[in-house]
Structure formats: structure tokens, C-alpha cells
């Protein structure tokens, strides 16, 4: 069976373009207290993207899911906070071209085996800390973002590197976050919970690639 990537985001897609932890960052982060925001930038769903990528022992799938709203909080020219909402009903598998196969697959990942979309139609991510990286190159990740990711009604803190910036009335955040699905009660096909499933196992981790644009 297949493993999915949410949202996301979750991330900080919520913040696939690059743009929802624990990825190594080459440079040491300079952590400072989060300052209060003096501007609120509204997320632009039509300009923002969120992609997911999930893998199993013998295969993998990838696709997209859409942001439905959110905001980035800015002080000066720095991102200091924010939150995003993901419409889980919009999830798609872009690598599956056959219509019948896609319908069957989507029926499974939106079921209670995975995201329980009928009872959990949205996922959210709320930033709790932005730690800027000293000396980051202009085209590289320049911050570590920490926040509360909520999927399937379960909330866990995740941290991931991202490229963030504010310029000419636009705030943007892009990057890739790694999510352990089992922490959100998505255990189907996990070797961590089911013995003897062999090559039917689905990886616990999936990734979310996000590009968030706010104005």
C-alpha cells in the first residue's frame, strides 16, 4: 500500500515549489525571542503551493493539497509568526494517471486508515518560533521554523529549515518539512506497529514541500 505526505503543510507547505521536521541544517541557528508582529500579511491560496511525497518499500506516490487560508506575521522585514489552514478535501495524487486507480487510491488515503478527511476536513500549522541562521546564503534556507502541526485532530510540534523573506509588500516562506505520520494516528502499514508486513510496509515519514505567498 502507499504512504502519503500531508499538508502540511503543511505545510509550512505551511508554509511544492519549494516553498510542514528535524532535518539537519548546516549552519548554526541564531535563536532570539520572537518579537511581536507589526504587520499581518494574508496568505494567497491561488499563489501558494503545497506538495506531498510518501514512500513504501516497493513504491511511492506524490501529489498536492491546497491551502485554504492563513496569515504571516511580520515585524520590519522579518517573518516572526503565522498560521496556515490546509483543505484536506483537495488532496490529489499527481503521479497516478489512470482515473480508476486514482479514485481507488484517493478513497483509501482519505479514509480512516489515513487522514479521515470526512471527520477532519482541515489540517493546520501554527508557527511558535522562527530562528534565523547567521550567515545564510541569499539563495539558501535562512531560518528554522518551529510550530504546531495538527492533522487528524492530533497536534505535534515540528521543526524544519526554510527560506523566508519580506519584500515589496509580499511575505514568502518556502521549504520542505518531514512529518512522522504515526504521531498523528496514521499507522496503516507501519512496521513500527505491525510485525511481519515485509515489502507491504509504508514509511512512517512523509514530506511536505511548500511555497507560501502572503500579501
TrEMBL record:
Keywords assigned: Signal
Signal sequence range = 1-21
What InterPro entries does this protein's entry cite?
Answer: Lipid/polyisoprenoid-bd_YceI, TTHA0802/YceI-like_sf
The Lipid/polyisoprenoid-binding YceI-like domain sits at: 40-215
Q: Would you say which domain of life the source belongs to?
A: Bacteria
Q: One Pfam family name from the record?
A: YceI
Protein name per UniProt? YceI family protein
- Organism of origin: Hymenobacter fodinae
